[in-house]
Fold these 3 entries.
Entry 1:
Amino acid sequence: MEARLTTDAELMHAATTDAGAFRELYDRYAERIYGVHLRRTRDAHGAHDLTAETFAQAWLWRRRFRDRAGGSAGPWLFGIARNLLAQSVRRRRVELAACARLGILERLDEPPATVEPDDVWLDGLDEALGELTDGERRALELRVVDGFPYQAVAVGLATSEGAARVRVSRGLDHLRQRLIRDKREAV
């Protein structure tokens, strides 16, 4: 019979070949990691997503773990959680700014707007989308229409996450420029 692994470091070492060891580590920390995310975001769904992403990253990086805390993986896991939270805040800030520039601040989890969108804006949308590169258009479809995270957008585009972010940003910027131009011409 195999001896029970007692330290996080032992579990992390075993997790390189045994998913059950990682599950035990998850059981030890999931509630605390979730609590950190919930306190920071005040959003239960967002906290669950960030917790899942924290452990997904830990799983992917498990071979990089180095025991620097006397057998505890806590500082390492909370460091991953902190970094993901910071990335999430930065992404949210960028997305809100882009939506504000485009005049589309309505959130998907709120009731739909009672005012119909400007018909002039809608008339030019297909043409504006047609002016985008294939990569920009596909990136916007994946990120804005389908709501995928940037990591999934990168996979869908067969590129890096950074390149996917650039394509979404450029696509939004081209749409914004087109909408500004159309608005000026309508006046």
Entry 2:
Amino acid sequence: MVSLDEAVIARLEKGGKRYEILVDPDLVDTWKRTPENVELDDLLATDEVWSDARNGERPTEEQLINTFGTTDLEPCVSKILTDGSIQLTTQQRKNLVEEKKRKIIHSISSEAIHPKTMLPHPPIRIEGALDEVRFSIDPFLSIEKQVKAAVDAIRHLIPLKFATARLAFRIPGKSYGGAQRLLRDSIVKDE
């Protein structure tokens, strides 16, 4: 069991009511990937669902049954962690921002080219441009939306052109099924 000092609040607001649990910030990510590998006792700081954890207020059994369909702890915890929001530690937030930044830079550098030279921009150039315009990265916003915003922000610093290539493949008959399964969404014409 994690100590109360190290625990963070996972919160779900539903039906005008708030439900909170105190969880280990490091085990939440592990639980989201593989819930069967994390013990509930290790994940939780207390074996309670709270309506306000800071003030020690608990919801009534009727409120728990109306929201979660049960008063058992495990389904309530599962619902709060999957549908609710979790406070992040400073280090976790910093790691999320860095990971998103790397993905945004990779996405731009792999899809955008310099219009005159027709060569891709190196990731360092894109990172420098993002730093220069002080582009702020939201750890919870999708990468696609942030790539569009980042391109709009750095377009006046570095020329960008997005290019796509059309490729033709000749595949022997015995390998067709596997290749078709992999490329199903990208196939324009099949002969």
Entry 3:
Amino acid sequence: MDRDELYTRMAERKFKLKDLEPYDGNNGRVNRCEQLFRSGKLRSGGTLLDVGGGIGDLGYAVRDIFEERIVLDISEKNLDAAIAKGNEVVVCDVDQHGLDREVIGDSSIDVVTALDFIEHIVDPENFARECFRVLQSGGQVFVNTPNFQYFEHLESLLYRGVFPHTSGDHEVYHGGHLAFFVLDDLEKIFTSAGFIKCQQIKDEEGYRSPPDQFVKFLSQKNQKEYIDCCMKLGNPNLLFACEKPQNI
């Protein structure tokens, strides 16, 4: 089995006939992202590119607040479901071909989303550069990925000597994750690609106040630094947004 076949089989191994039906609201990361759009914490309108969007649930969920929804995925089977939900689709291996310049032109997208995707690719730095290329001036990227700095993950590693399992998928080793991220990693990757206004958004449902023994190890000189520390340690999901500068 070659690399492309392996990655495709990984992407579509959970496909079910039910996936061809309208989205039923049973996906936490999709619901979380939809809520951020509808609350105004993420921008909406124009063209959404959902990278690694699989069966197109996010595009379906936000069909009334984006004029165009494009789902990019490595699996044609998954994209059949995305089409059934009214999305446009692009079949592409991001590590091999970026965001497919022949199909997705420069400065053509308003918002890029990547939900539980960046931890599955070999070259996140090139992915960030590709996001910068396809976005219009002022466009936004939103990444949802497990937060390796979440205090329960640190407890597992420090107190029990067990590397934390950061995926809900237990069928393959560590859910097929190739990389593990904290906020500083994503800030470095995306600012190096040219992005600004990097921010961590609170995971309202998952957040838990971190224990004092973890907080005290991070220096806090003022209230803002204390809040930033709690955000880094208390969110199981790293919700990260950044913007392409205006007039670029």
